[in-house]
Amino acid sequence: MGNYTVAVIDFETTGLSPQCGDRTIEVGAVLVTHNQIVDRFQSLMNPKMTLSSFIEDYTGITNSMLTKAPDISSVMKKLKSFIAKYPLVAHNASFDARFLDAEFKRINQIRTNEFACSMLIARRLYQDAPNHKLETLVRYKRLTTDGVHHRALADAEMAAHLWIRMIADIKRDYSQSTVPFRVMQQLAMMQKKKVQDYLTTTP
DNA sequence: TGCCAGGCCCTCTTTAGGGCCTT
Question: Which domain holds residue A82?
Answer without folding.
Answer: 5-201
